[in-house]
Amino acid sequence: MRRHLCLACLLWISACGDLPQPFRHETRNPLLDPTPIAGVTVAPVVDAPDPELLAESMAAALVAEDVAAVPGAPRPGRRWVEATVVDDGGSLLVAWQLREPDGRLLAQDIQRHDRATWAAPESRNAGTQTAAAALAKALRQENPLPRISVLRVAGAPGDGSAALTEAMTRALRRAGATVVDEEPHLAIEGLVALAPGPPGHEMITVTWVIRKPDGTAVATLDQSNPVPKHLVWGNWSGLASAIADAAARGIIEVVRGTPR
Description:
Helix 1 (51-64) packs across helix 3 (121-142) and helix 4 crosses helix 6. By secondary structure, this protein is α/β, with parallel strands linked by helices. The protein is elongated, with a radius of gyration of 22 Å. It has 2 domains: 3-34 and 145-256, Double Stranded RNA Binding Domain (2-Layer Sandwich), CATH 3.30.160; 39-142, 2-Layer Sandwich (Double Stranded RNA Binding Domain). The chain contains 6 helices and 13 strands. Strands 1-13-12-11-9-10 form a 6-stranded mixed β-sheet. The longest helix has 22 residues, at 121-142. Helices cover 31% and strands 33% of the residues.
């Protein structure tokens, strides 16, 4: 089914300069909220100085990686994360393990800490962030994003079309997408339209269309914002990044849920 999403955004211009901050949503659009990758429980780390606090730190680090995680004892039918601590003669090996509901090992990340590092809460917490990224990567690989091509954006004045194309490519890659030139699962097509805006401004509308290889549109995302004229008719590097960064999140959520 073809979907049309409106990115209700307002471009804010910094009080101390002309470069725009990223487009900010005026209201929450639940369609664009990140979809958690999976639900896991993080068990207390028995051999840690603060077992519950370390589990809470790991759960928070996983949430930051878009994994729905909560601290607590393993639950039936739910994946869980546990850590074992082994004394390696002067240092400690900490193995964070992601397990299936039946106990099978799905992924793990092993870190080495000296005793002083392990005794400092901030260092232990930094370790959870590294481990969480590795465990989340394993979960993402179960359902990788489709291969995406970014077609050249049309309609922007000056260097805007090239800048927007490059900015969207960078934004999607930062979000974990594989951007390709050939044999994509989906293609992103961008179109820019200008209209008179408030005094000294142009109204920019950017339409992003997500298409299947046969050209069928599966979703459309719109952005519309007043922008100072000197930015519209000048260098688009900062403006293009702001637009692409705001749209990429919504695009990723659409492509993640689109059958191939």
